[in-house]
Amino acid sequence: MADAARSTPRLGALDITRKLAAICGDPFARFAGPADEVAGRTARWVAVPGGPHAAAEVLRLAAAYDLTVVPRGAGTKIDWGAAPAQVDIMLDTGRLAGVWHEPRDAAVAEIGAGTPLRAVQATLARTNRRLPVDAPSPGATLGGVLAADESGPLRHRHGSPCAQLVGVRYLDADGELVSVGESGTEALGRAAPGGGRPSGHGPAGGAGGDPGRGGGDAILGRGGAAGLDVARLLCGSQGGLGVLVSATMRVHAVPAGRLWVSRPVWTPLEVHDLVRAVLAADVDPAAVELDLPVPVPLPRRRIPATHPSVVNRPDHPAVTGRPAAGSLVVLLEGGPADVTERAERLTAVLGAEAMVGHHAPEWWGRYPFAPGDTALRIEVPIGDLHAAVYALRDATGGPVPVRGSAGSGTVHAALSGALPPERVASILTAVRSVLIARRGRCVVVAAPAAVRRAVDLWGELPTLPRLRSAKAHLDPHHRLAPGRLPGGL
After folding, report:
1. Facing residues of 37 across strands?
2. Residue 3: pLDDT above 90?
3. pLDDT for position 294
4. pLDDT tens digit string along 52-103?
């Protein structure tokens, strides 16, 4: 309360609090506390609206008092990207949650932005369906995943979560509820003969990503299929272009069979050859993931190959005579017999060191960085992934943990949070100079506050002019998450 009172006359601050409580209900509007931060910037109020119309009223109140608004889902990525210039109202989407009940063979589902992804998958699993979205952040909401355009191993076959969008409902900066693309009902009518309707009528109760990717021209009326372009432009925008209320997403049947084929790797150059072999093998992988951890010193005594700890582990130095630098793992999905046959073909391609398992490795679908690290996302054509890893090693002077989708050229890396900002800046400069010639990028996903203030988080962004146009069109007064987008937008 004291922080809010310092920036707003006390009576005015109390008046705003009362109005937020009238909109959201007494338990769901309050002065913010120390934990209510966005990349280190503390909010002044927290509002948890109970539905789209209440959320719209919050935005109208913000417009009337010239206050900024930053949406928050589960907060799993709240420290990603740039810190906003100011956070007056943190709009918590936790009550904008729910999954529409549609026929069991429906190809789409409309989902509230505040719905935890785990809950979405559990609900769809009752009818043997799933979203082909496996974002690594535990507890993340669908809205948070879309706002960061966060994707996991399944991005190889299905693309990013943005690629699964059919339509969205979102609130603009003035609190107007906008529907773009197709609603769940419209999409269902296209997907199922004779139409069919959901049994409900709306959700029961919506840098990471790359906000530079999108249809900035389409949003201004200069492109075709502008509605879906607008929907996809919201992906990765960190709430800086609109407040997502719900998303209509494509859903797929749960695969009956899943197998993981793993192969140890010793050098990044070997990864290049292996990925090419996997993609040429015609096995239709659902995911092709790479894990290159920092090597752990080996024990001095040699472990016998018959020891229980190394049986069935062809990557162990006791068997190979040299430690593996990491592993390449391919996920195959489909009918059980078909998956087994494809796994056999793939192991023949990858050689005797390849193994087939019924469970994912422990690191699968997890980031290589921890809280406090400087987290990097590297995007590069798959043929140049090894060059990006070598560039990172050369710049840092040693191995760096790298993990991600070798099959799509998108990986994450971790730099120690103890590195001084100027050292991180020099590493970024060196890596980006290598990547730019290979049509690649290196983005700082998250970092300690000192690093975030001192370095260029985004690097070169050719689409910045289009993003600037979109911001000017959708949020001309810069009330939505100001400063979260590249270029200080």
Report:
1. 42
2. no
3. 81
4. 999 999 999 999 999 999 999 999 999 999 999 999 999 999 999 999 866 6
CA 393 – CA 38 distance, rounded (Å): 31
Nearest 5°: phi and psi at 317?
A: -60, -25
The span from the CA of 424 to the CA of 400, in Å, is: 13
What is the rounded CA–CA span in Å between residue 351 and residue 365?
25
| Antiparallel, parallel or unpaired: β 374-379 and 441-446 | antiparallel
- Name which of 237, 256, 234, 257 is nearest 247 in CA terms: 234
The upper half-sphere exposure of residue 245, i.e. CA atoms within 13 Å in the direction of its Cβ, equals 26
Backbone torsions φ then ψ of 445, nearest 5 degrees: -80, -50
Looking at the predicted structure, is the pLDDT value of residue 118 above 90?
A: yes
Residue 289 has pLDDT above 90, yes or no: yes
Strands 89-92 and 45-47: parallel
Residues in Cβ contact with 183 at an 8 Å cutoff, skipping those fewer than 6 apart: 110, 167, 169, 248
Amino acid 227: pLDDT = 60
Residues near 143 by beta carbon (within 8 Å), at least 6 away in sequence:
71, 73, 93, 96, 112, 113, 114, 115, 206, 244, 247
The answer to whether 373 and 415 are in contact (CB under 8 A) is yes
pLDDT in tens, 215-236: 333 333 333 345 667 777 888 8
**Residue 489 pLDDT:** 86
The pairing of beta strand 165-171 with beta strand 177-181: antiparallel
Give dist(CA 53, CA 43) in Å, integer: 22
Residue-averaged pLDDT of the chain:
84
For 262-276, give the DSSP string: EEEESSHHHHHHHHH
Backbone dihedral region of 331: left (phi > 0), alpha (psi from -120 to 50 degrees) or beta?
beta
Q: Is the pLDDT of residue 122 over 50?
A: yes
What sign does the dihedral 428-157-403-367 (CA atoms) show?
positive
Neighbouring residues of 126: CB distance < 8 A, sequence distance ≥ 6? none
Minimal CA–CA distance to 133: which of 105, 165, 167? 165
Tokens of 272: 């290049």
CA distances from 343 to 79, 91, 135, 192, 259 (A): 40, 47, 25, 34, 7
Residue 252 pLDDT exceeds 60: yes
**Which residue in this structure is represented by tokens 């951890």?**
293
pLDDT at 218: 34
Q: Is 449 within 8 Å of 37 (Cβ atoms)? A: no
Distance (Å, rounded) from C-alpha 173 to C-alpha 175?
6
Structure tokens at 345: 């073909």
SS3 label, residue 387: helix
Tokens at 244, concatenated? 């997502």
User: Does position 322 have pLDDT exceeding 60, yes or no?
Assistant: no
